[in-house]
UniProtKB/TrEMBL annotation:
Entries under InterPro entries matching the protein: Na/Ala_symport (IPR001463)
Coiled-coil residue spans: none
Pfam families cross-referenced by the UniProt entry: Na_Ala_symp
Keywords annotated in UniProt: Cell membrane, Membrane, Symport, Transmembrane, Transmembrane helix, Transport
Top-level lineage group: Bacteria
Protein known as: AGCS family alanine or glycine:cation symporter
Upper lineage: Bacteria, Pseudomonadati, Bacteroidota, Flavobacteriia, Flavobacteriales
Stated family: Belongs to the alanine or glycine:cation symporter (AGCS) (TC 2.A.25) family.
Length: 700
């Protein structure tokens, strides 16, 4: 029996060797070998590179990177994060593939720290930007399109060209195949280009042979979105859109945006459109017509409003809007404006409660904000445990947000922008940070009174500079107002799939407005808690105007400047650089003025957020003056750090804390909504009966 078993084993082994040998030889002939060069050129973050050299198999090779910005055809993935693993699947022409994972080693402390924090950023983003509707399979988040535009090959909005259609190779309404010649195009420099079909489908021509497709000297062409398109292809079947790395593009509906927008819409209806009915009274309060000098508090309604606006009118209004318009096109402007309108009601509620539940100690120092109304407002409703937990969570997030998004991010971006205008500052971020910290320190050491005095002067100046500059751009192009607003409304309701379609443009616009105005975040309630008033509802009305200024005026101005100058079509440049280009296209020296405005925006944001962070800090660590001084020193240290080094992941993490503050805050607002409505009714009754204090009118 043993001999039989041994014979069977030997036979099986021989057969295995016999049949496996050719396969091994075939694999060595067709197998792919990948050599990687890991490049970390500097000590700065996010500038690493992975370069691959592939041998074996059959060319051409395709590279499926986990980095979505790297094309399938590229063997090099650039601008990646040091210390973070990246995967690539290399496939040859025969379909053979190999999977590799690489990590570029970090050199500097900032690179190491950035790589460590990045997973935390990804985790936080997964929560804030989680799509509940896709998770429940209520819709397919993949972006599909039924058609594609046929554009002028290699067209760029930065090129001053006149393009003429020389001839069509195929007739109108003809079925075409992918790769088929469609048209010959000639520019005014004598250069000829051929447009090819990118997919199978039916061709619809927009213009006739011999006609001009796009003329960069005509402002109407510059403003109109898609003016460089000469035809469209209606696909045989809907096609998904892809990222450069081959991943399907998706429209996510972030939970944080839903949370903020639903809250703002709820309170708008709950309070009977107070954002419309109370707007006139909001202006009156800002003008000081109801300022009672004997009321408890330390700053006027206008100063509280200026402090809150200074914290929100910042880089987001310039850089953030430019990114939103680049992603969502002109149509994002409409949804951004609408979200700002609803956000006014959310500000009304949180600022009312900020004053109502504030605490003024025997020294006259004021402690207020969401920490107070979450704790004591919910305690009144027998929810002491929940209220205390929400208040502590809010305070923790408030401290982190003040040091990151309200400080380091502002200092970092302010230095980068000012550096472009003042060459001698290049490479001297530390020295800039020291100077900036001294400037900020001179204001915040004096507390809320000092902050309010500065913001009440800086906010009007910076707003006037920016708005006047924007109006000049619009005025120069006044004849194109109709074209611009057509682009906005058409883009809002019938957006191209390339911009994410209707849903994509909607989310981009709503997201920018929600992030910009900070309505629902609760930060403004901290500033308003210091107002001189006997009626908390009055401060709710005073706060109404803040999202109007921040989002409906300043953000919209930025968007209109980009649209009027045709920069909404630019995809290669984003952020402040794009806005700067838009201004420079009409006023060559305006980028210098813009740099001053951005510096003021950053400065005013920082001094306001220093107060928000300090009140969060004192809620957690005690209300003594020593505790306040310790926080102020810490804040100034972070100013220097922010200007000196690039801390991408750290800034992203702390910036997202601002958004996360809305979770505990809005939960409390929902619970206390009925209380605010009753207080509002009582206030309106007193206002109608002239029972409120009014500043006596003076006669000359």
């Amino acid at each position: 029996m043993r001999k039989i078993v041994l014979s069977v084993l030997l036979t099986c082994t021989s057969l295995s060797l016999l049949f496996s040998q050719p396969e091994d030889e075939d694999y060595s002939r067709l197998g792919l070998n990948v050599e990687a060069q890991l490049i970390n050129p500097t000590k700065r973050i996010n500038d690493a590179k992975i370069s691959l050299k592939v041998t074996g198999g059959k060319a051409p090779y395709f590279y499926k990177w986990s980095n979505q910005t790297t094309p399938l055809s590229s063997s090099v993935s650039e601008n990646i994060i040091e210390g973070i693993p990246y995967q690539v699947i290399v496939t040859d022409a025969n379909g053979a593939s190999i999977t590799k994972t690489y990590k570029v080693p970090s050199k500097s402390i900032t690179e190491i720290f950035n790589g460590i924090v990045q997973p935390a950023v990804d985790f936080q983003a997964a929560i804030l930007f989680w799509d509940p509707f896709a998770a429940l399979n209520l819709y397919d988040p993949v972006i599909y399109t039924d058609e594609a535009e046929v554009a002028i090959p290699n067209w760029s909005p930065d090129k001053d060209r006149i393009y003429t259609l020389q001839k069509w190779y195929v007739a109108d309404n003809t079925h075409i195949q992918k790769g088929e010649k469609l048209a010959k195009i000639l520019d005014d420099k004598g250069n000829e280009t051929i447009a090819y079909a990118e997919a199978n489908g039916t061709l619809t021509q927009y213009i006739n042979a011999g006609e001009i497709i796009y003329d960069s000297t005509k402002q109407a062409d510059v403003i109109e979105q898609g003016a460089h398109n000469l035809a469209k292809i209606t696909f045989d079947d809907p096609q998904p859109l892809y990222h450069p790395n081959g991943d399907k593009r998706k429209n996510n509906i972030p939970f944080i945006v839903v949370w903020l927008i639903l809250g703002s819409i709820f309170f708008t209806f709950k309070l009977g459109f107070v954002n419309i009915k109370g707007f006139k009274h909001s202006i009156q309060l800002a003008q000081g017509k109801f300022d009672n000098p004997n009321a408890p508090g330390t700053i006027t309604h206008f100063q509280a409003m200026a402090t809150a606006v200074s914290a929100t009118v910042g880089l987001g209004n310039i850089a953030g809007v430019a990114v939103a318009i680049s992603l969502g096109g002109a149509g994002a402007t409409f949804w951004m404006f609408l979200a700002g309108f609803f956000g006014m009601s959310l500000k009304f509620v949180e600022c009312t409660l900020g004053v109502k539940y504030r605490h003024i100690n025997h020294e006259g120092r004021i402690f207020g904000g969401p920490m107070n109304y979450l704790r004591y407002g919910l305690e009144k409703r027998n929810m002491k445990g929940l209220g205390k937990a929400l208040a502590i969570l809010f305070a923790l997030l408030g401290v982190g947000a003040s040091l990151g998004g309200g400080n380091m991010l502002q200092a970092n971006q302010a230095f980068e922008i000012v550096e472009t205008q003042l060459d001698f500052l290049h490479g001297h971020g530390f020295e800039f940070g020291i100077g900036f910290a001294l400037l900020v320190g001179a204001v915040i050491i004096g507390g809320i009174n000092s902050i309010a005095k500065v913001t009440s002067k800086v906010v009007p100046v910076m707003a006037i500079i920016y708005v006047v500059g924007s109006l000049i751009i619009i005025g120069v192009n006044y004849q194109n107002i109709g074209t611009a607003f057509t682009a906005i409304f058409e883009g809002a309701f019938s957006a191209q799939a390339l911009k994410g379609g209707f849903l994509g443009v909607l989310i981009v616009g709503l997201q920018r407005a929600a992030f910009s105005s900070e309505a629902g975040v609760g930060s403004a309630a901290i500033a308003h808690s210091a107002s001189k008033t006997e009626t908390p509802i009055a401060d709710g009305y005073a706060a109404l105007i803040e999202p109007f200024i921040d989002t409906m005026v300043v953000c919209t101005m930025t968007a209109l400047v980009l649209i009027f100058t045709g920069k909404h079509e630019v995809s290669e440049v984003a952020g402040v650089a794009l806005t700067s280009e838009a201004f420079a296209s009409v006023i060559s020296w305006f980028p210098s003025v813009l740099a001053v405005a951005v510096f003021l925006f950053a400065f005013s944001t920082m001094i306001s957020w220093s107060y928000y962070g300090m009140r969060s800090w004192t809620y957690l660590f005690g209300k003594s003056k020593k505790s306040e001084l310790l926080y102020k020193i810490l804040f100034l240290v972070f100013v220097v750090v922010g200007a000196s080094v690039s801390l991408g992941a750290v800034l992203d993490f702390s910036d997202m804390m601002i958004l996360a503050m809305s979770f505990p805050n809005i939960i409390g607002l929902y619970i206390m909504a009925g209380e605010v409505k009753q207080d509002m009714k009582a206030y309106v009754k007193k206002l109608k009966n002239n029972e409120l204090y009014r500043v006596p009118e003076t006669t000359d």
